Amino acid sequence: MLDDPGEAAELLRQGGVVAFPTETVYGLGANARDETAVNQIFQAKGRPSNNPLIVHVAAPDQWSLAARDITSAARVLFDTFSPGPLTVVLPKLPAIASNATGGLDTVGIRVPEHLLARDFLSMCNVPVAAPSANLSGRPSCTTWQSVMEDLDGRIDAVLKGPPPTIGVESTVVDCTREIPVLLRPGGISLQQLQSAVPETISLQNPSAQHPSTQSEQATRSPGLLHPHYQPRAKVHLVPAIKFTAELLERTSEKLTRGEAFVTIGTGERIELRDDHCLASYQFGDIEQLARDFYESLRRADRLGAKHILVQLATGDSPIVSALRDRQQRSAE
Ligand code: TXA
Ligand code: MG
C-alpha cells in the first residue's frame, strides 16, 4: 500500500502493476508499451484476453501517446469532457502493446479528473493501460480495501486515495468513424455527449437510421460480452424498497423466507423487523447511491447475504442510465 504517487509511478515504470484511484473506480495500471507488464494485468484479474484495456494519460493533449489520429468529433468531446469520466476510442498507435487492446487496431483513451490519478499518470510519463482493479466479473472497487480483498498478492502495489466522486466507470465512445457511437454508458450521459456532438448515437439504443445488431455490438465493444459487476449473493432488482413484506412480494423470484438478505436503494431505511435483513444501505440521492453501489454489493457479500434487493435507479439525473446498466448487469 502506498500514499506517494511518485513511488507508485516508479514501480510502474520498472514494469510493475499498480492499482490507483480515479473519480470513477480504482484502475489497475501497467505501462501500455510493455507487453509483459500488460500481460500481468490480465493474469492478476483473470480477464479474458480479447477484452481491451483503456489507456490513461495525464492530459487531453496527450492522446497522441496512444492514438494515430483524432477525428474532429473526438476533439470536441475531449475539449468538453476531459479530464473526466470519458473514454474515446481512436485508431491505435503501433507503440501501444497489442495485448493491451485485445488485438484490436483501436484504443480507448481516458484522462481522469482525480488529482492524485493525474499526478500519478504524469509521473509515470508513459501511457498507462488500466482496467478496473477487481477480479474479472466481480463488482468494481471504489476503496483500496476492496482492491486488496480481490488482488492482494497478485499485484505490486495499491496507491491509496480519497473516495471517488462518481463511482461508476467512464462513458466509452467509439470515435473511429464519422458518427460517434456510445459503447458503454458511464459518468457522462448520452444527452451530455449530444449537447457537444449532436449526431452521437448509442449502440445499446440505436436509431432507425443506424440499426445495430448484437454481433456488431460484440465486435465493437467486446467488454459487453462478459459477465460483470457480480457479487456472490443473488441480486434482485425491485422498483421500491419500503417494507420487508412489500419487497419480498415484489421480487420476481420469491425469496425463500428465512434467507439472509441486504437492501440497497434510495428509500427509507427499512425497519429491521425481519431478522433476516442483515443490513439496509439507503442513500439520500442517486449520485450518492452511484458512488457507493459497488461497495454496498461487496459489503453484502462480506456479511454473508444470500440475496441483495437493489432498487432500480429512476429519474433524470445524468448518472441514471449508467447506474441502471450496472444494476442490471449485476443481476444477470
Ligand atoms: O472509468 C473507467 O473507465 C475505469 C477507470 C479505471 O478508468 N476503467 C474501466 O476499465 O472501467 P474496464 O477495463 O473495466 O472497462 C473498459 C471498457 C470495456 O467495456 C472495454 O470493452 C471497452 O472499455 N474498451 C476499451 N478499449 C476499447 C476499444 N478499443 N474498443 C471498444 N471498446 C473498448
Ligand atoms: Mg471493469
Question: Notable features of this structure?
Answer:
332 residues, alpha/beta, 17% strand, globular, binds threonylcarbamoyladenylate, binds magnesium ion
Decide which structural class fits the backbone: alpha/beta
The ligands found in this model are:
threonylcarbamoyladenylate, magnesium ion
One letter per element, helices H and strands E, the order comes to: HEEHEHEEHEHEEEHEHEHEEHEH
Helix tally equals 10
- What is the C-alpha radius of gyration, as a whole number of Å? 20 Å
Give the percentage of residues in beta strands. Answer: 15-25%
What general form does the structure show?
Answer: globular
Terminal Cα span = 33 Å
Q: Kindly report the spatial arrangement of strands forming the biggest sheet.
A: 7-1-2-6-3-5-4-8-9-10
Low-pLDDT ranges: none
Strand tally: 14
Biggest sheet details: 10 strands, mixed
- Proportion in helices: 25-40%
| Average predicted confidence as pLDDT | 91
Describe it for me?
It contains ten helices and 14 strands. With 332 residues, it is α/β, with parallel strands linked by helices. Helix 1 (5-13) runs parallel beside helix 4 (115-124). It is globular, with a radius of gyration of 20 Å. The mean pLDDT is 91. It binds threonylcarbamoyladenylate and magnesium ion. Threonylcarbamoyladenylate binds at residues 22, 24-25, 27, 51-54, 85, 87, 89, 101, 104, 106-108, 110, 130-132, 169-170, 172, 183-184, 220-223.
Quickly describe the structure.
The protein is an alpha/beta fold. Helices cover 30% and strands 17% of the residues.
